[in-house]
Structure formats: structure tokens, C-alpha cells
Design goal:
41% of the residues lie in helices and 15% in strands. With 185 residues, it is α/β, with parallel strands linked by helices. The structure holds flavin mononucleotide (FMN).
């Protein structure tokens, strides 16, 4: 399996880190793009450098690397996950405005009818955010808001992160035990 993963500048970059760790454990090939804003959020929220985050991926790219294979639909992938996804990136994808590698790779994923999973994070949401999400959902994009559940009785932040990442893995058909399912003992 080969996946494109993007981390953009919304709060919740720990979700992206955890996803990369799990994909690495399973020997899934990852192509990673970290936006410029995400770089700052990574430093602030989880005190990690971009370079260290990139070590979790097989193929990291610069946000402006127009020679990256994921620029083209002829490079086959099994889909793309943007985790977390900022409202800016969401807007860019919804409007086909592909002025960086995250936006271009997402545009390619859409045009090639591959799986595109977005984990948006913002609160509250304005009508523009909601309309952009609707436009993408109408095209088959899976919107997985960073909204952890509480029925599985999370004990710490790691449990909250694992719930959201686990739901993304469910959608990718990747088996895991990151969270306890409803009624599971
Ligand atoms: C600490 C921090 C937290 C942020 N959290 C969010 C957020 O949760 N959602 C969001 O849409 N933007 C958030 N932003 C703003 C985005 O980083 C900003 O809109 C940026 O232009 C997004 O660019 P990108 O999509 O290329 O990463 C945050 C910015 C900072 C510095």
C-alpha cells in the first residue's frame, strides 16, 4: 500500500504524527508533505522539528517541490490523508487552487478518483467552511472531523488521538486496535 500524507497548519498535528507512526509499523509506503504553517504548529504543540517528523515517512517532500512524483496522476497511490487539515487547505482543494504540493497532490487524488480523507479542525465553523466541506463531500471526499468520542472512556490525550487516527485507519481498511469499539470489551 502506498499513501500520501499531508500535515497542514491546523491544531492537532499529533494526529498526523500518530498516523505516520502506525503506517510505519505496518510497512505502508508513505509520501509526506508538511505545510509551512504546520511546521510552526508542530514546534509549538508537540515540540518536534519538521526534520524529525519527516523521518517517520519514507518519502518527505518540500511544499514547493514540483518535481515530486505525487504532482502527477501517473504516479499511482492508494489515496491521500490530510491530517490535520486547515480551513485554508480545505478551501484550496474545494476550489481547485493548487498552488502548493499539498493542494496539487489532493487535486490529483480527486481527479484520479482515489480515496481522499480530510481531518479538518476548526471551531466554530463558518458557512464558508461548511460549504467547502459539502462541496468536497459531494465529490466523494471523506470528511473525518477531529472529534474524538468519549464513550470509550479515554484516559489521556493519547487515547483521544488514537480514536481519531483509528477511525482514519478504519476508512483505509487497515486493521488496528487503537481504540475500543462500542460494546467491545
Ligand atoms: C498555533 C496555530 C493553530 C492554528 N490552528 C488552526 C486550526 O485549528 N484550524 C485552521 O483552519 N487554521 C489554524 N491555524 C491557521 C493556519 O495555520 C493558517 O490558516 C495557515 O495559513 C494554514 O496554511 P496551510 O493550510 O498551508 O497549512 C492555526 C495557526 C497556528 C499558528
Amino acid at each position: 500500500m502506498r499513501l500520501v500524507v499531508a500535515i497542514t497548519g491546523a491544531s492537532g498535528v499529533a494526529y498526523g504524527k500518530r498516523l505516520l507512526e502506525v503506517l510505519r509499523e505496518r510497512d505502508i509506503e508513505t509520501h509526506l508533505i508538511i505545510s509551512k504553517a504546520a511546521e510552526k504548529v508542530i514546534e509549538h504543540e508537540i515540540e518536534m522539528t519538521k526534520v524529525r517528523m519527516e523521518k517517520l515517512a519514507d518519502h518527505p517532500y518540500d511544499i514547493d517541490d514540483w518535481s515530486a512524483p505525487i504532482v502527477s496522476g501517473s504516479f499511482e497511490t492508494d489515496g491521500m490523508i490530510i491530517i490535520p487539515c486547515s480551513m485554508k487547505t480545505l478551501a484550496g482543494i474545494a476550489h481547485g487552487y493548487s498552488d502548493n504540493l499539498v493542494l496539487r497532490a489532493a487535486d490529483v487524488t480527486l481527479k484520479e478518483k482515489r480515496k481522499l480523507i480530510l481531518v479538518p479542525r476548526e471551531t466554530p465553523l463558518n458557512v464558508i467552511h461548511l460549504r467547502n466541506m459539502t462541496a468536497l463531500a459531494e465529490q466523494g471526499v471523506v470528511i473525518v472531523p477531529a472529534m474524538p468520542a468519549y464513550y470509550n472512556k479515554p484516559k489521556d490525550i493519547d487515547d483521544l488521538v488514537d480514536f481519531v487516527v483509528g477511525r482514519v485507519l478504519d476508512l483505509l481498511g487497515i486493521e488496528h486496535t487503537l481504540y475500543k469499539r462500542w460494546r467491545e470489551t
